[in-house]
Amino acid sequence: MGLSSLSLMLFSICILSTIVKFHLVVANNNLTGNVSPQICNLKNLYYLDLSNNKLSGMLPQCLGPGLKKLSYLDLSSNKLSGMLPQCLGPGLEYLNLANNSFHGILPQRFTTAGCDLSMIDVSHNKLQGQLPRSLANCASLEFLVLSNNQFDDVFPLWLGTLQKLKILAMRHNGFYGVIGQPKKNLHFPELRILDLSYNSFKGKFPAEYMFSGSAGRGITSEQGSYDSYDHYLHCSISITNKGIEINYPKIQEDLVAIHLSGNKFVGNIPEFIGKLKGLRLLNISNNFFTGSIPSSFGDLTVLESLDLSHNQLSGEIPQQLSQLSFLEKFNVSHNHLTGRIPSGTQLSTFDITSFEGNPGLCGDLLPKKCENPEGINLPPSTTNPEGSGIEVDWKFALAGLGSGLVVGVVLADVAITRWDEWFLEVVDMLITLVKRIRRFRK
Prior knowledge:
By secondary structure, the chain is α/β, with parallel strands linked by helices. The chain is built from four helices and 28 strands.
């Protein structure tokens, strides 16, 4: 488009402000300068996309009350700063302010009658403080992305009132405390993606409370994807998948992910997670989980990435995990696991770094090899019950039994194949013996 100044552009299009529904899309154009207050003269502006430019400065305070018909606002990936307008347009459905330098708090006034928001993304800014409790009035909210800010608050249990919430991303903030279960029946029936990584949450993780609905328990392809929704409802999100932070510009509806890395969660890994048949990504690394790896994880047949590293897990790696044919990322390093790594399975395709830091593990992939052949468990050496002090070492007993069996088979074979020769020799010996006896008597 060749534009360099947003103010110049707005001046040239003011004549269009009388259009009933006015769309203004100037994304990816290297626009510079501030967002001019002139934009508030576009009273019928319905759709505004100024993303991926070089706009700077503060937003005009009139942006909210002055644009009452505004439904879609995308100012992401600019150089905007300052505090956000505390009053947003009552008809706003899509709000994307990610990747800027906004500071201060989120707008505090979200009323039941005036909140139509279905998507909020304010990630990668410098926002602080607590989340506004009035967000619970946004009954249509599906996507809430708060990642990479400086929020300082407990887990927002009250968001459980939002029956349509599908994505809750809160990573890299200052959220803290135990995630309890509220007295009221508040839960997240549609939640598919939960990212709480790199905060200060502690205590046990209430998986059943967070995923009590059917959303994570298997989604058929007939349900489609968010790609098929209107463009102003799709949401992009960054998730650490397979050890790499990946940006998903459009979220498929069948993507179910739980990311808890970098907190202080304790206790056993919830068995309930094994019931989330649609789960594709699970990362609970860098916590204090104890106990064994649930064998029910073998039922997560579409699981692509499993990271349990840097915890205090013990016991053996369940054989059931060998059933996970879609698994591309697997990491159980730096725990207290013991026993044999299931061989001849998908797990054998991962390198040593997936298992290191577990001195009790053995297998073909590790420097420590397992002593006994797979599938043979010899009983321990025993002492004669009468107290004779004679010990029976079953390794030598089995070796002797094997040797005796081989000798017996060889002798039997010889006896059968050379029977005629032996019979004649024996008869000849008997005749010779009889002759000698007769000579002796004479």
